[in-house]
Amino acid sequence: MAPRQGPQAPLEFGGPLGAAALMLLLPATMFHLLLVVRSGPARLLGPPPYLPGLEVLWSPQALLLLLTWLGLQAALYLLPARKASRPWC
């Protein structure tokens, strides 16, 4: 006997394809905004006048913050999650 197929709920953000597009386009949009805002005329629709070097975009403090955040998330993941017990029940 085959499992019954019920009505499928609508997919948010366009399904897997929309989620993949968001993962690619959002960082690209933020990088474009960063470049445009730092330029002189700050034209949103025009291309940025130059691409900065890697030393401008690189920050050891940002890497340290990222690694600290990842470490915190790993520590929170490893914390034991237990059910609340009621001894009187």
From TrEMBL:
Record EC number: 1.3.1.70
Localization, UniProt: Endoplasmic reticulum membrane; Microsome membrane
Chain segments annotated as transmembrane: 12-37, 57-79
Molecular function via GO: Delta14-sterol reductase activity
GO BP annotations listed: cholesterol biosynthetic process
Membrane topology annotation: Multi-pass membrane protein
Function, as annotated: Catalyzes the reduction of the C14-unsaturated bond of lanosterol, as part of the metabolic pathway leading to cholesterol biosynthesis.
Stated name of the protein: Delta(14)-sterol reductase TM7SF2
